[in-house]
Every structure is written in structure tokens, then in C-alpha cells.
Amino acid sequence: MKSVAINGFGTIGKRVADAVAAQDDMKVIGVSKTRPNFEARTAVEEKGYPLYIGIPERENLFKEAGIEIAGTVEDMIQEADIVVDCTPGNIGPQNLEMYKKAGVKAIYQGGEDHELTGLSFNSFANYDDSYGADYARVVSCNTTGLTRTLHTLNPLVDIKKVRAVMVRRGSDPSEIKKGPINAIVPNPPKVPSHHGPDVQTVMKGIDVTTMALLVPTTLMHQHNLMVEIGNEVSNDEVIDLLEKRSRVMVVEAGAGLDSTAALMEYAKDLGRSRNDLYEIPVWKESINVVDNELFYMQAVHQESDVVPENVDAIRAMLEIESDREKSITKTNKSMGIL
Predict the structure, then answer these.
(1) pLDDT digit string, tens, across residues 203-228
(2) pLDDT at site 89
(3) Number of other residues whose CB lies within 10 A of the CB of residue 329
(4) Cβ contacts of residue 333 below 8 Å, gap of 6+?
(5) Which residues belong to the annotated binding site for D-glyceraldehyde 3-phosphate?
(6) 86 catalytic residue (yes or no)
(7) pLDDT in tens, 149-165
(8) CA distance 147 to 202
(9) Where is the active site (predicted)?
(10) Is the pLDDT reported for residue 90 higher than 90?
């Protein structure tokens, strides 16, 4: 059982902690918070995770709130084989210095730049690159979504270039200070957006250009892909390949799954913790090959699709499992992923 510390118990961190706790080859030795809020209390009282504080000067605040702490983040990482860093992006570099000083491996999230670690991770595309590595970064939710389907299709279609329009949620459901409320915002108002170069960190050599918008929703992102291909394939061949790939879900608008709202309702019906949809849903009706172009639409649950990737990254970096498909299968089974 490898010891895993979760630095940051927020939107991603609490999901990663629960995913790690569901494995039989790793365990959560601690999570961290900087404020004594409901998430800190839940970590201790409901989940039973040892809680460490990220800002030692706030120890009295936790004591006043009646939340038991086990020590500081520095204490936590001393006991860890690896740290999954789920802290806000602006403190990644200083945390890396702390991890290096402690001699502990670390996984970052997509909010950090690729240059911080020099190595980005996706379970399907480049699992082997991170095998035994000290530091890596799981790519963002959008990049994970793009990579999952493009890498799945790559053996079937001769990808010449990819063009994608990302329709992004304005904020996560709990973020009350973000928008837009009543606008469509080019984000960024230039082409390309950062998503294309991010895909290239895990799929070397792929020609991909993206543009992105923010819209007034909190549920999911939605992607519209146009893939120029160099060979002849049928719609049915594409559908069959996507249906066989785990962590990808072919859904039908005609069956009622005709929106991101319906997809989130489906996740609830599946009985998922926090209504999470780890899979990337691809609308069957959108899959269409016209001349030398493949078109399709997909959705991304931004709060959860990277969670299984973090578990696989732990296995790769700690050399628990050398075979990516064995790790993917193990993670999927433990988390109930289709």
C-alpha cells in the first residue's frame, strides 16, 4: 500500500482523495486545507482523513472551529510516497520546492503550466512517459476530454489535423463570484486557445488548433470537433470504436440525453458520488464523416474527468503497474467507471 498525500481538499482534491481511498494498492495518509470550512470538517468527521493545515499561522482558527488537525503540510509530506497537488495554480512553483526538499514525488493538475514539471500525463496517450518519474502534471479537464477521444480514434483514422471549438462552463457550481451571467465571452478572444498546445504535450506531433468560449452554465463543457482525415472510414466504424473504449460514452440525444443537463441527471441516476461523470460522452447523432472530415460533439464534466487519470498517474510514477491498460481497468473497476 503506497502512501498518498492530497495537498488541497477542494473540487478536485476531495474527489482524488476518495478515488485513492477506493484502491487496494494505495491509501490516503492525509489531506490539507487552509481554512476551517465545511470541507475541512467533512474530511475529518465524515471521511476520516487526517487533516493537515497549509498555513500554520491559522492553527488557532481550526482549534476554535473544533476541527482536529494532525499537523502541517510539511509534516504530511514527510510520510508520503507521493503528493497529489490540488492547490490553486499560483502556488505550484513554491510547493514544488517544498516537495523537492522533502524528496517526495508530486502530481500537479492542469491549472499549472506544462513547464513546471516538463512532463504532462494522460492515461491513454503517454502513461509510459511518467513511469518512475518524480514530477508530472495531469492535463486539464478539457485536454483530458480531447485526448481521450482523439487517441481512441487515432488507430482507425489517419488524423491530418484537428480543429475544435470549446464551449466552456462559466464556473463550477459552487463558485458564486464568477460569470458570465448573461453573456457569451470569447475566452481567450484569440486563436488558438491554450487547449491545443496542451493536447500536444501528451500527443506529440498532432496538428490541433482550438478556440474557446465561456457561457452562462455551471454543469459541463461541450466540444465541437472537426477532424481532417486521410483515409476512408464509416460512421459505424467510428461509433463502434468509441463504444468499445472505456472512459468514453456514446450517448443518444434521441434517447433523452440531449443536453449537458440531461447528462448530469444521468450521472445522478447512475448513483455516482457527487453526481460525477468520469466518462467523456460523445453524441452518437453528431458523429459524421463527410468527404475527408470527421465531425463529432462531446461533453466534459470538468469536476471529475481528470480524477481517474490522477490514480493512474500515481501507479505509473510509483511503478506500481507498468501496463497502462491494467491500471486503467483497475481504476475503472474500483470507481464504477464504464
Answers:
(1) 999 999 999 999 999 999 999 999 99
(2) 79
(3) 14
(4) none
(5) 140-142, 195-196
(6) no
(7) 999 999 999 999 999 99
(8) 8
(9) 141
(10) no
